[in-house]
Amino acid sequence: MAAMRNRTLPDIGRIRAGRQDELPRSDALQHLLDHQELDTVFQPILSLRHQSVVGIEALARPRTMGLVQMFLEAETTGRMLEVDRLCRWMALETYRRLRFEPGCRPLLFLNFEASVIDRGVLGSGWLLEAVQAAGLEPGDVVIEVNESRVLDLEALRAFVDDYRQHGFLIALDDLGAGDSNLPRIAQLRPHIIKLDRHLVAHVDRDFFKQETIKSLVNLSRSIGCMVLAEGVETHAEVDTCASLGAELLQGFFFARPRKPDQLDLPGLLEPLAEATRRQRVHATRALKARRQQSLDLHRIAQKGCASLQKVQRQGFDQALRDLLSADQGIEATYLLDERGIQVSETHMAPGINVMSSRLFEPARRGSDHSFKEYFFSLADTGLTRYTTNSYISLATGHSCRTVAVLLRHGLTAANYVLCIDFLTPTSLFPQG
Q1: Domain span at 337
Q2: Which of 18, 45, 350, 363 could tie 55 with a disulfide, CB 3.0–4.6 Å?
Q3: Together in a domain, 92 and 217
């Protein structure tokens, strides 16, 4: 490790402290460590919004054994910390030698084997010293931490806080995989969360993955961090992740991990621009679809109000049944009085299946809806029409939205609220 010492890096012998001599040794691993038989490749991380390559992730590639074998032997021989620090040092040195256009130097995303935190390395300052020894600044580096590999949360939090104060950026890796603990996002307050590639794979065809990513994006924005979708491989995955709010993208669609001399960041600008153009088209189409849906819901609600205006109270139920044919997306119709009490039956569209559980049952005449969002949003605010976000209907167990419209019945001078439940489509994006 003479090269490290020549650059005033802390003696690598420090990282062997605490290793148990009775553990089995691997001659191949020892040879790798002694001769630094390790290469670093880089995979770009891109921002559609900024039309730029914002980072490159450093990935270790041992020359004489497989990557999995290297880490497995490091674990079984008690040399995980030693291997991890070699990987990080080689990444820093390789990154230092890269040449970029002025003002276009991407951040270095540097993996950190977080399980070593449980082994008492907190406070060593090794990483900070290594970054400085490589002639870099903390602001050049994003430390990627897989929090699920750490048992000691307080030690992990102290590590993250310490390096954040020094100016490093912090990313939580592989979120949505395995045992990732979602509450730790708020506890650790990272700058970036990386969505696991298994969550990203085929996300364009999986409604539940879409909803999961959307929830993680909302959580991230509420605590002030960005979302990176890792492992995007197709146009559809790129477009869907971007539409769901992922600010950063990484994956084979843009570039595979490359050796330093094969890294072509300017060559990514055209596919990046094309992805941005597609995103604009998708966003515009989605806005138009939502606007058209809003107009359609308003038209159906107006039709229902007009029908109810023409009949006496005893004709309300028939008018509500007739309204079911106005649109195939209608799940149910019902009418409330000005106190929020249901004055009609709940009329279900033909073919609607109610989930077989006592939890789900259509409300009956006389039910109190005064605590429901779609009622008090009219009664307490002066609005005349209100549309909810999607929610799970207690009538059927399906995802739906309710449109509620204030109606002053001309024949009786009484106030009512017409409620129409619409099934929520199981796709977030308009097709075509």
Answers
A1: 296-423
A2: 45
A3: yes
**Number of other CB atoms surrounding residue 65 within 10 Å:** 16
**Domain co-membership, 254 together with 329:** no
pLDDT in tens, 219-244: 888 888 999 999 999 999 999 999 99
Nearest to 396 by CA among 347, 331, 324, 335: 331
Question: Are 399 and 254 within 8 A, CB to CB?
Answer: no
Indicate if the pLDDT at residue 178 is higher than 70: no
Put residue 256 in one of left, alpha, beta given phi > 0 → left and psi -120 to 50 → alpha.
beta
The tokens for 95 are 């990154």
Are 179 and 213 spatial neighbours (Cβ–Cβ below 8 Å)? no
> Is residue 354 in a domain?
yes
Q: What is the mean pLDDT of residues 37-61?
A: 94
| 122, 241: one domain | yes
Q: Tell me, yes or no, whether 351 lies in a domain.
A: yes
Q: Looking at residue 338, which CATH number applies to its domain?
A: 3.30.450.20
Helix-strand-coil percent breakdown of the chain, rounded to 5? 45, 20, 35
- Is residue 428 included in any domain, yes or no? no
What pTM was estimated for this model as a whole? 0.79
| pLDDT higher than 90, residue 117 | no
Contacts of residue 432, Cβ cutoff 8 Å, sequence gap at least 6: 285
What is the CATH number for 203?
Answer: 3.20.20.450
Question: Which of 170, 193, 314 is CA-nearest to residue 246?
Answer: 193
SS3 415: strand
Q: Domain count of the chain?
A: 2
Asked if the structure places residue 179 within a domain, the reply is yes
Amino acid at 240: T
**Co-location of 111 and 214 in the same domain:** yes
Write the burial class of residue 187 (CB in 10 Å: 0-12 exposed, 13-18 middle, 19+ buried). middle
The answer to whether residues 107 and 141 touch, using CB atoms and an 8 Å cutoff, is: yes
pLDDT given at position 14: 43
Residue 19 pLDDT more than 50? no
169-175 and 141-145: which strand pairing? parallel
The reply to whether 259 and 307 lie within a common domain is: no
pLDDT(420) > 80: yes
AA identity, residue 25:
R
Q: Which ranges of 150-226 would DSSP assign to H, the alpha helix?
A: 153-165, 183-188, 197-200, 207-223
What would the pLDDT profile of 58-85 be if each residue is shown by its tens digit? 999 999 889 999 999 998 888 888 999 9
